[in-house]
What we know:
- The chain is mostly helical.
- The chain is built from 14 helices and four strands.
- It has one domain.
- The strands form two sheets. A two-stranded parallel ribbon has the order 1-4. The chain has a two-stranded parallel ribbon with strand order 2-3.
Amino acid sequence: MLKREKDFKYSELPEPHKERTRQILKAHPEVRNLISRNRASFYLILGISALQVAIGILLSTQSWWLALIAAWSIGAFANHTLFVLIHECSHNLIFKNRAANRIASILCDLPMSIPTAISFRSYHLKHHSFQGNYYLDADLSSRWEAKLIGSNFIGKTLWFLFFPLFQALRPPRLKGIQFMNGWTIVNWIVVFGFDILIVYLFGWIPFLYFAASLFFSVGLHPLGARWIQEHYLTYPPQETYSYYGPLNILALNVGFHNEHHDFPSIPWNNLPAVKKTAPEFYNNLVWHRSWTKLLLKFIFDSNLSLFSRMVRSEKEEPVPAK
């Protein structure tokens, strides 16, 4: 059992992925053949974004509570898939041209209600380069956040419910990462402009559907357990975990998280092939089989908290502006 913590766990060892990548490529050089781009992902972006907008418009004449039910049962899954596609764009796994990937990611944002794509790109790429660095890894909770939430089920339930808001409060800690740039402004103008247009033409119910879908897709929903699955120390000292469950079908294999960190240049459709090609490197790791079970475990296990993360550096390293 984990002890109740008042601070993160610390390690002087380097993050595990670079070394495992080296070992896998030495044993299985054919893994390099899986590095590619998947342009079909762009058609998924167009289709899912259009589906979400269409559902929002169809709900415009319905009651608000029906919009919430639709957001929980349909919108959360659609928006979560769009988040995965934003993630693919962040790693330039759809188009070779970086600007094209940024534009595609902004299209994912249209039914999200708030702009997330460009900011996610900036912070997520640093997460890969500086995993566990308190001042450069936005995936880590802030200390005030972890202390506020505590380890009881009420605090953790509220944290899941308002997860997007807590994430939005982390950037001031991450001073080494540029918060605003030209693409961020474009992202804001496009998404907020789209919100205004939707409300003007169809009222507030579609916007409620978009916002609720966003909150459920990353928060108090089985899908929200993905954020716990990836790096929370449910079985220490292992610090990155994969999920091999049925929701990977809808989530575009985002559960293959060890595989992704080992090979961030491999698109979602090829991640299962990484494990299949090099099973001896992954079968000995702990993985999760159920996001629902993990969600309940994290909420009700008082030994798990936002401090159940590995930190290996608190040095703020300068990051050149891009």
